[in-house]
Amino acid sequence: MASQESKKAGKAAVVGAGLTGMLVAHGLKKNGFDVVIFESEEKVDARPRDWTIAIHWALPTFNNLLPEAVRANLVKALCNPRVDFTPEVECLPCFNGVTGELMLKSPMPGSRRVSRQLLRQVLSEGLDVQWDKRLVDISSTAEHVTLTFADNATVQADFVLGADGASSTVRSLLFNRDPKANLVPSAYYIATVIMRHDDAAKVEPVHNFHPVATIMMGASCFVGTGTMYAPTPDLSTWSIFWAKIFRRGAFPDPPARQGAEALRYVKETTKDLIEPFQSQIDWAKEDDSTMCFIDQMKYYTPSLGFDTHGGRVTLVGDAAHPMLPYRGQGFQHAVLDAHLFIEALQKGEGLEAYNTEMVERGAKAVAQSLQEAELSVDLEGVMKSLMARQGFKRTA
Ligand SMILES: Cc1cc2nc3c(=O)[nH]c(=O)nc-3n(C[C@H](O)[C@H](O)[C@H](O)COP(=O)(O)OP(=O)(O)OC[C@H]3O[C@@H](n4cnc5c(N)ncnc54)[C@H](O)[C@@H]3O)c2cc1C
């Protein structure tokens, strides 16, 4: 039964158990709300895909939203928990993709790079997540908001938060299915590869460059590599991540979006990169020890004018402002959304101010991510980029 405090605070329904949905649910729970998450996937690890996420300027806010028991487990989500986090480690070296020289070293004091999958598992502890519940409709009366799911079940809540990712159903419904709420394809593809070499000598070159992550820019593509998983001290057990962002049209379109054919395409279209970036992809094995995905990156510029069902439904995270992953800002803005949304509910002054700030900030961050993509492909552009001028700081 709900406590007096949670009854007073209200019942919140969160749609989507990605990182944003789970984080906001912890924050709501911590602040006395009765909260349930509805997630379309069947279980937390239903999809094997993973990538790394650096949390930097939003880390203090992120920590504040979590209960102590979950915070204590965050070490389990780190890509490389086996390093001393000194200033040398809490930075991202960026190499000139043409000459191989170190171009920039962006300080990221206090930052941590996590695996999305591992963090999702850590965050799922202590939450009421209803799996296999795909939201299909939202309606409301003066008393409450009703969610309808694909299995025809309905649930009522006082507040509903769309945390259902870039292709958000909640966003589409709030804009009355207007195509203007749809994702827009960018001019860029991203290929993400996670590989296990089973050979310490092949992990060492990456580890020696930086134990967490390194990037190169300015040679017509953006490439990053680093530690994905470090399960034991023995480097031969580690997995490496490798990601490349390239302009559509620079190569023939990918023949497949995942698997061995996608990996072969990435290998065939990646030549003459500086080290350690080239060897890593050359060494990726075409078997189950490698995972490869290719996507055309998409974005959506948030705008106001959506139906908030009387100030009771809104959006957070990628559902609100999906952006390109340049300078690692997407999840950090989701963290800020979560904090500001909870603060707005606590103040009891409605969600208008939250929506206005979130839309303005999100639109700026999306525009900056597109601009960074344009500037990342040649050396002249790189030096004008926010990455070169501001590093990973918050700029929206
Ligand atoms: C390669 C890459 C690198 C990145 N690096 C960084 C970084 O360094 N720093 C950073 O801050 N950000 C980074 N990002 C961005 C970050 O990953 C995202 O902003 C973040 O993961 C978004 O989480 P989310 O929970 O909002 O969305 P999602 O992870 O998409 O979660 C949405 C959830 O909603 C569920 N769902 C969808 N539709 C429905 C429905 N109708 N009903 C019920 N459930 C539904 C989905 O199944 C999913 O589980 C990166 C992104 C990529 C791709």
UniProtKB/TrEMBL annotation:
It holds the Pfam family FAD_binding_3. Its cofactor is FAD. GO terms for molecular function: FAD binding; monooxygenase activity. The keyword Oxidoreductase applies. It comes from the Eukaryota. The keyword Manganese does not apply. Keywords: FAD, Flavoprotein, Monooxygenase, Oxidoreductase. InterPro entries: FAD-bd, FAD/NAD-bd_sf. Residues 113-368 form the FAD-binding domain. PANTHER family: FAD-BINDING DOMAIN-CONTAINING PROTEIN (PTHR47178:SF3), MONOOXYGENASE, FAD-BINDING (PTHR47178). This is Monooxygenase. The lineage of its organism: Eukaryota, Fungi, Dikarya, Ascomycota, Pezizomycotina.
